[in-house]
Amino acid sequence: MQIFKKSEELLSRELKVSPLAAQTFSKSYRYLCRGIAPNFMDHGEGCYIYDVDGNKFIDYMCALGPIIVGYNEPSVNEAVIEQVNRFASGSLQSKLEVELAEKLCEIVPCAEMVRFVKNGGDATTAAIRLARAYTGRDMLLMSGYHGMHDWSIGVTKNHKGVPKAVRELTKSFTYNDLADLESKLKDNEVAAVILEPIQSNGPKEGYLQGVKELAHKYGAVLVFDEVVSGFRYALGGASEMFGVVPDLAAFGKGMANGYAISAVAGKKELLEQIEQGVFVSTTFGGDAVSMAASLATIKILERPGFYEKLTKIGKIQRSGIEELIGKYGLKEALSVSGLHVHAGVVFEGHGSLDSLDIQSIYSQTMVENGILVFATYNLNSSHTEKEAERYLEATDKAFALIRKAIDNDSVGGILRGGKVDPVFKRNMK
Q: 221 near 189, Cβ under 8 Å?
């Protein structure tokens, strides 16, 4: 039986000194059922994590995406330890900075030059600043989630604290709708079109090429936000998968198996502006430990069959979810969204139950069965068919309870802990 005594004690302590008791919204206690779910991790091994109470889970969060080859990977650990014994951040850069930049220019389709920063939002913001400087324009068009910086988050409902003048310089456009994009390009002098190239079930045939053609037709720089898709779907990200090369691309998450690093890559004429007055400079951009981790991680990603294995496991899970939705007649309340290696369940309300009631039943049941996942799963290379089978067994139990709750139009007698209550939720449709 799972016990979460230490987790709850630590949570109570942290809530007194840190908002939400987590530094990332999606790692907050509000994303799981409070009281019957883990809050604090002790250690990880491969695709398993252990919380501070000693409970063991198959991890399908993978640190929100960064864990791509598994926790405690020996070759990554060795590279990190070797560099730790030299220095992390020093008064001069390390040779790893050169080696990693050269490697990215080799494997990323758009990369003629690279600039390193720390978080995904740092990389997208650097790309936007470069695009604005290059075009001499201010207006931005975006689709997807691009981080916490004002130019991006100001367009969402989470814009509190962002000046109105800043919010007016960014407009959203609808993914997979070229007509919507062109109408906004016609009405505005746009510096950059930035989008997550893979959203929901991916781009329609020809969509990304159409976005590129429209952006260039109207004089805008095309930016792919590959913070999620880069290194997860293919070594060269969505650009490699779909054969469309943007002017700039932002990378992060999976490029160092959990170590903090991100990068903006792209055309030389755009990146060279950093030498000509465009300010993109951070104290920890040259963190040698993270660069050592990234180089070691990429060596693993380059192994033959790496991405084929991820896709195989992802197909088992995604198709299994679809079958279980059909088994329990839940198509009005549940659907599947996402490509195989990064997919999951979309929850809808039904009757008097809202989407979070239904998601809470799912979350509670998955945790009870030793699976740590939100709605969407991430895979790393240590997941196997054995873990996929356990994931689907837990999903079967969760869907059976969702069916029962819908039939009763109540979560009474089913939901035992707190209700899932996200602060911020990405749109997976």
A: no
Q: For residues 147 and 169, what is the distance between their CA atoms, to the nearest angstrom?
A: 16
Closest CA to 192 of 252, 241, 149, 152: 152
Q: Give average pLDDT by consecutive 10-residue segment, the chain, 429 residues.
A: 93 94 89 93 98 98 97 98 97 97 98 97 98 98 96 94 96 98 97 98 98 98 98 96 98 97 98 96 96 98 97 98 98 96 96 96 98 96 98 98 97 92 70
- Cα separation of 327 and 344, whole Å? 17
Cα–Cα distance for residue pair 279/299, rounded to 1 Å: 31
- Per the document, the length of the chain is 429
Specify the pLDDT at position 425. 67
The overall pTM is greater than 0.85: yes
Own/partner contacts of 47-53, CB < 8 Å, gap of 24 or more, are 47/71, 47/380, 47/382, 47/383, 47/387, 49/372, 51/4, 51/6, 51/7, 52/6, 52/7, 52/10, 53/2, 53/3, 53/4, 53/5, 53/6, 53/7
d(CA 24, CA 370): 23
Helix extents (H) in 158-227: 164-167, 178-187, 207-217
* pLDDT at residue 387 in the model: 98
Paired with 209 in beta bridges are none
Segment holding 396, helix H or strand E: helix 385-408
Tell me how far apart the alpha carbons of residues 192 and 197 are, in angstroms, rounded to a whole number.
14
**How far apart are the C-alpha atoms of 73 and 71, rounded to whole Å?**
6
Residue 283, amino acid: T
Residue 220's closest CA among 170, 280, 255, 167?
A: 170
- 377 CB-side CA count, 13 A: 31
The token pair that represents 395 in the structure block: 């999903």
Q: Are 235 and 88 within 8 A, CB to CB?
A: no
Long-range Cβ contacts of 164-172 (<8 Å, 24+ apart): 169/138, 169/139, 169/140, 170/139, 170/140, 170/141, 170/142, 171/139, 171/140, 171/141, 171/142, 172/141, 172/142, 172/143
What residue type is assigned to position 237 of the chain? G
Pairing status of strand 170-172 against strand 139-143: parallel
Measuring CA to CA, how many Å separate 341 from each of 67, 211, 240, 249? Answer: 13, 24, 16, 21
